[in-house]
């Protein structure tokens, strides 16, 4: 088993905290989010997580990607497509991943891990999927005839983002597609669009979907991805996929702490969920993670949930 996260981590207060940063700030050069990345990395490593994220600290999942694409206009919380989408050949996420990797390696040097343990460590690159990007944006008249046309165009652009994350050293890449469970998405176009991105990289590709996926799992199993990642702690229905689709499942990202509740799970509760998956899948096919991103949780709660999750995983590994 490998422990990981879905993505976002609570934000640290980000004012300039030392002389160097205060000087940079006075020249307009202070990147206030670097301290948030450092904090997210250090806390995830401290909790014992294997494949961490940069915390997705800079912006929400739509704006983070949209700001580097020509054709996107951000007005407050609304993202609009006002002309045909084109790549700016810029990436914020790959730069942040590179920085997270540097902080992680520094931290790991202090920890003296075994070779086996340190080989599991890495940083996950995260992209918001084209279906979720387009379905949460408005398209101005005549720019695209259909949302589906825009989705396929955007998938071509996101290849650049995926390749940049791979080149920056991502251990795996995750595409976030929370919209797949809403019923709004054309599943055939979704498969085609994810395949465009999947074919452009060689590191393992994971796809995260939020909410109840039991009803759409037969579709999701046809996506060209290596890992499917879902909520299982806050969602009783999803756990039935192990019983009903066990033979078809390959690698699963097993959300096993509820990211919508502040109550911290017991180790036993998490062990119970992992055991349901282990009854069907081999341990090397399981990625243990929280249900979803952790941005809205208090920082101490997010940390405690990750720690419990890792401890539950270790308990089971030590039993075998
Ligand atoms: Zn989610």
In short:
With 320 residues, the protein is an alpha/beta fold. Helix content is 42%, strand content 17%. Helix 8 links the parallel strand 7 (172-176) and strand 8.
Structure explained in plain terms:
An 8-stranded parallel sheet has the order 1-11-10-9-8-7-5-2. A 3-stranded mixed sheet has the order 3-4-6. With 320 residues, it is α/β, with parallel strands linked by helices. The termini are close together. The protein is globular. The protein has a single domain, classed as TIM Barrel (Alpha-Beta Barrel). Helix 2 packs across helix 4, helix 4 packs parallel to helix 7 and helix 11 crosses helix 12. It is built from 12 helices and 11 strands. The longest helix is centred in the middle third of the chain and has 22 residues. Bound molecules: zinc ion (ZN). The site of zinc ion (ZN) has 5 residues, from loops.
How many individual domains? 1
Strand portion, in percent? 15-25%
Helices, by number, come to 12
Q: What is the CATH C-level name? A: Alpha Beta
Number of strands: 11
CATH architecture: Alpha-Beta Barrel
Basic shape: globular
* CA gyration radius, whole angstroms: 19 Å
């Amino acid at each position: 088993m490998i422990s990981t996260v879905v993505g976002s981590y609570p934000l640290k207060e980000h004012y300039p905290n030392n002389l160097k940063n205060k000087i940079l700030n006075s020249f307009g050069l202070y990147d206030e989010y670097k301290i948030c990345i450092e904090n997210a990395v250090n806390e995830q490593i401290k909790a014992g997580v294997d494949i961490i994220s940069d915390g997705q600290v800079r912006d929400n999942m739509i704006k983070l990607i949209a700001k580097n694409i020509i054709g996107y206009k951000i007005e407050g919380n609304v993202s609009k497509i006002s002309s045909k989408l084109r790549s700016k050949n810029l990436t914020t996420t790959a730069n942040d991943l590179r920085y997270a990797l540097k902080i992680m390696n520094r931290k790991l040097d202090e920890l003296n891990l075994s070779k086996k343990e340190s080989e599991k460590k890495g940083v996950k690159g995260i992209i918001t999927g084209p279906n979720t990007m387009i379905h949460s944006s408005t398209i101005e008249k005549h720019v695209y005839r259909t949302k589906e046309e825009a989705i396929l165009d955007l998938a071509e652009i996101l290849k650049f983002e995926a390749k940049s994350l791979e080149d920056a050293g991502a251990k795996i890449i995750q595409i976030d597609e929370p919209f797949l469970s809403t019923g709004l998405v054309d599943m055939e176009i979704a498969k085609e669009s994810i395949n465009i991105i999947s074919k452009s990289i060689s590191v393992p590709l994971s796809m995260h979907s939020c909410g109840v996926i039991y009803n759409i799992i037969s579709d999701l199993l046809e996506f060209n991805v290596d890992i499917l990642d879902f909520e299982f702690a806050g969602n009783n229905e999803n756990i039935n996929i192990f019983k009903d689709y066990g033979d078809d499942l390959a690698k699963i990202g097993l959300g096993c702490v509820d990211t919508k509740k502040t109550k911290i799970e017991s180790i036993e509760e998490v062990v119970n969920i992992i055991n349901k998956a282990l009854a069907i899948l081999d341990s090397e096919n399981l990625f243990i993670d929280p249900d979803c991103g952790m941005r809205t949780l208090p920082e101490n709660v997010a940390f405690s949930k990750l720690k419990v999750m890792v401890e539950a995983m270790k308990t089971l590994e030590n039993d075998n």
